[in-house]
Amino acid sequence: MPRNRPYGQPDRHLPGDQYKVTWQDRVFSGFLRYMFVVYFQRFSPRIHQLTHLLAEHWSNYLRDKDQRTLNDTAAIFIRRGDKMPEDSFWQKHNRWRNISMYVKGLVDEEQRQNRTFSSVFIMTDDVSVMNSIQDYADPQSKGIDEPYARKHLRNRQIIYNVFAPQACFDPFIRIGFEQFLVSVEFIVQHVQFTVGHSDSNVGRYLEEITYARNQLKASVQSNSFVKNAPDHL
After folding, report:
1. Which three-class secondary structure state does DSSP give residue 208?
2. 0.85 cut: is pTM over it?
3. Checking CA distances to 108, which of 14, 61, 100, 156 falls within 20 to 30 Å?
4. Hey, is 10 helix, strand or coil?
5. Chain segment 3-14, per-residue pLDDT in tens
6. Can you give the residue ranges of every domain in the chain?
């Protein structure tokens, strides 16, 4: 059975086996969850400092390169590694989602907002994903795989956690986990829109923490800033 159960009902610790969760229970448990996320979830000062340095690095780079800012940045989060049992697409097709599917999620949102994100922050644990995305964005690339991703990433600035080994993270070693947290905090603080997937507990966390920090704004929904990659182009 998958370790992650997306959006499971909060009934594990209910008294007896006859109690039915009401809408009031869901509202109250949701309130408690968001209060915890907003007021009690805090990373260590080291993580905040590294996040600040990462943002400063890319802010200076973008400004010096062509006067861009981090205010025009989206993110793509792709978790692979050992997550096959938890990934709904893998369970159906015995393979990962193409990178193009994540890019389509980004393009769909750009069309909805009538804007283009000039920079894309990549958070992944797969070096091949990072290398492929950088190649797709390169206008001089001669590759022909994933034409959709190549078309829509070309000439965009691909940014990433420069402190992470191989521009990725390894959640099974300390330095990798620390840089994983830095990448998460960077997305929460500086990214305007994220494409990931709720099959991943990190994807769900990004959705909830971003919503919790913006829920008092008019018309904000839980998926206003973080959306799932589609399963098809």
Report:
1. helix
2. no
3. 61
4. coil
5. 334 455 555 555
6. 46-228
Which of 68, 95, 35, 10 lies closest to 190, judged by CA? 68
Q: Are strands 119-124 and 226-228 parallel, antiparallel or unpaired?
A: unpaired
What tens digit of pLDDT does each residue of 81-96 get? 777 888 889 999 999 9
- Is the CB of residue 124 less than 8 Å from the CB of residue 168? yes
As a whole number of Å, the CA-based R_g of the chain is 19
Could you give the CA distance from residue 79 to residue 229 in angstroms, rounded to a whole number?
A: 12
- Residue 213: exposure state from Cβ atoms within 10 A (0-12, 13-18, ≥19): middle
Q: Which residues contact 231 (CB under 8 A, 6 or more apart)?
A: 89, 92, 97, 101
Contact 223, 209 (CB under 8 A): no
Give the per-residue pLDDT at 233.
86
CB atoms within 10 A of CB 166: 13
CATH of domain 46-228: 3.40.50
The percent helix, strand, coil of the chain (3-state, each to 5) is 50, 10, 40
In the chain, which ranges are E strands? 73-78, 119-124, 157-159, 193-196, 226-228
Q: Could you read off the pLDDT of 124-135 as tens digits, one per residue?
A: 988 899 999 999
Q: List the structure tokens of 125.
A: 């644990």
Q: How far apart are CA 203 and CA 227, in angstroms?
A: 9
Beta carbons of 86 and 3 less than 8 angstroms apart? yes
Exposure of 85 by Cβ count < 10 A (0-12 exposed, 13-18 middle, 19+ buried)?
A: exposed
Place of tokens 């966390």: 205
